[in-house]
Amino acid sequence: MTATPKQLAAEKARLVADALAEGFSAVRITAPDAIPLAPERLDAFLKDGHHGSMGWMAETAERRADPRVLWPDVRSVVMLGLNYGPDEDPRSLLEARTRGNISVYARNRDYHDIIKGKLKLVAGRLASRTGAEVKVFVDTAPVMEKPLGEASGLGWQGKHTNLVSREFGSWLFLGSIFTALELPVDAPERDHCGKCRACLDCCPTQAFPAPYRIDARRCISYLTIENAGPIPLEFREAMGNRIYGCDDCLAACPWNKFAKSASEMKLKARPEFEGPRLSDLAALDDAAFRAFFSGSPVKRIGRDRFVRNVLVAIGNSGEGDLLPAVRRLLADPAPVVRGAAVWALSRLAPEAFFAARIEAVASEDDEAVKQEWRALGPAIG
Question: Does 201 qualify as catalytic in the annotation?
Answer without folding.
Answer: no
